[in-house]
Write a structure and sequence with these properties.
The chain starts with a helix and ends with a helix. It has 2 domains: 144 residues, Arc Repressor Mutant, subunit A, CATH 1.10.10; 185 residues, no CATH class. The chain is elongated. Strands 4-5-6-9-12-13 form a 6-stranded mixed β-sheet, sandwiched between helices. α3 packs across α4. By secondary structure, the chain is an alpha+beta fold. It contains 15 helices and 13 strands. The longest helix has 48 residues.
């Protein structure tokens, strides 16, 4: 144990260090509290008997703080200053990012660069990004690891498990992702967009979602200007490895083709956190007005829905609403709509989906009616047996169809049963005829023999 303690003086396990690498590899900069809530949510419901919130927090984050300290001693992590609330933030070194890339199964160029001086300015924006990710994932605690805790803690953990699930896991997310309007993924040109968060969670019906986070400190016109860059990026095309030209974003992310008859760009979610002096509500309204040309669809009066061909679905919420309701709750306002909706409804087009579903149902019903009419017409034209008068079966119709004949049927005007009886009668008649002919042959042979005997008798008399 002494040797292991010297290498990992904080006594952390490989699993704990892997948790820290994974979380920091995605978020780039985070506190031990955020790492713990993402990697070991069950710890949130332990140490509840500590007297103060500060003591409880210190106890539940101790293991991940130790793991981060061990990574620092190995040159994989560094201290990144402190948040405005005084919490220490951690971030990875270049070697740490390379190690995290292995754990996350990502290419090195997908990891992004190492943040610089994040904590010296309070890390306000990175912390809001992290809280957005946590609120979207809504990590579920393992109830087996909460057993034995006070009843209130177990009940709180059970409530978290029973609550609607979030979207994806930490590996479904990436932060600070360049969206090059020119240049390459690795070296984007000046003027390219940079998404705060990119979510890929197809199992949760979110094939691709880009997120912008604002602490209500940035002017609405500057936020709106980002959508000009998004639009340029979405419209950029390149040849993929199959030689087919397609939108550049599809060469990196395997989002499925949009169903229906429209080509909608990937959705963008705006998350506002009321830290600055600007009102989150007024920021949403201003950005919506300034970006109308990017998101406004065309009304289809016949179908009762909007079509968003070539548009960017823009959705907004606040971190407070996101924490309260989660992705499955009514926390999201789609620009152009009146009511807040769950995330999947907000980034989708429920009215169009319902209209298309009605259209598909009507098409199925018409196809069924047409099939029934055709079946009735076939029945009316179906031939009957010339003997018993019963309608031919489908198998019998196919058998007597001269186009399918290899061995033509002997009685195509009869049904199978009547044909069997007719064949049996014919076979019996043929057998009777053969017997008659055989009897006739035997009779003729007998008469010939008798005639020969008579001739022989007369000749013998003449000799004597």
């Amino acid at each position: 144990m002494a040797g292991k303690r010297k290498v990992n003086e904080a006594g952390s396990s490989n699993g704990l260090r892997g948790d820290v690498l994974c979380v920091l590899g995605v978020l780039k900069v985070a506190t031990a509290d955020q790492i713990q809530r993402l990697a070991s949510p069950h710890l949130t419901y332990r140490h509840t008997l500590k007297k103060t919130a500060a003591l409880r927090k210190e106890a539940r984050t101790a293991s991940h703080r130790g793991a981060a300290n061990d990574l620092r001693r190995h040159g994989l992590a560094v201290d990144g200053g402190r948040t405005r609330g005084g919490e220490e933030v951690r971030l990875l070194t270049k070697d740490g990012l390379a190690a995290a890339a292995i754990d996350l199964d990502r290419e090195p160029e997908e990891m992004g660069g190492m943040p610089k001086s994040a904590g010296r300015s309070g890390a306000s924006h990175p912390m809001t990004v992290n809280e957005t990710v946590i609120a979207l994932i809504r990590p579920k605690p393992d109830l087996g690891l909460v057993a034995g805790e006070p009843a209130e803690a177990v009940a709180a953990a059970q409530a978290a498990v029973d609550a609607p699930k979030g979207i994806g896991t930490i590996t479904s997310y990436a932060t600070e992702v360049a969206l090059p309007v020119k240049g390459t993924w690795k070296n984007p040109a000046i003027g390219s967009a940079r998404a705060d968060v990119v979510v890929i969670a197809p199992d949760d019906n979110v094939p691709l979602l880009l997120i912008e986070v604002d602490n209500c400190t940035e002017e609405a016109v500057l936020i709106a200007a980002k959508f000009d860059k998004y639009a340029r990026f979405f419209k950029r095309k390149e040849k993929d490895t199959d030689g087919i030209e397609k939108p550049m974003w599809r060469t990196r992310w395997l989002a499925p083709a949009w169903k229906g008859y429209e080509r909608v760009h990937p959705p963008v979610l705006l998350v506002f956190h009321q830290v600055g002096k600007r009102s989150a509500k007024s920021q949403m309204a201003k950005v919506a007005d300034l970006t109308r040309h990017h998101w406004q669809g065309r009304w289809h009066s016949g179908g009762g829905f909007h079509s968003y061909d070539g548009c960017i679905p823009v959705v907004a919420t606040t971190l407070e609403l996101l924490r309260e309701h989660g992705p499955a709750g009514p926390a999201f306002w789609r620009f152009g709509r009146k009511e807040r909706q769950p995330l999947l409804d907000a980034i989708g087009n429920p009215r169009r989906d319902a209209a298309l579903a009605r259209s598909r149902q009507a098409a199925r019903e018409e196809q069924q009616r047409r099939a029934e009419r055709e079946a009735a017409e076939r029945e009316a034209q179906r031939p009957a047996c010339a003997d018993c008068g019963r309608k031919f079966t489908d198998d019998r119709l196919e058998a007597v169809d001269f186009r399918n004949w290899q061995n033509p049927e002997s009685h195509p005007h009869l049904c199978e049963n009547c044909q069997s009886r007719a064949v049996a009668v014919e076979q019996q008649a043929e057998a009777d005829e053969r017997d008659r002919q055989e009897q006739e042959r035997l009779r003729q042979e007998q008469e010939a023999e008798q005639a020969a005997q008579k001739v022989g008798g007369w000749l013998s008399r003449f000799r004597t």
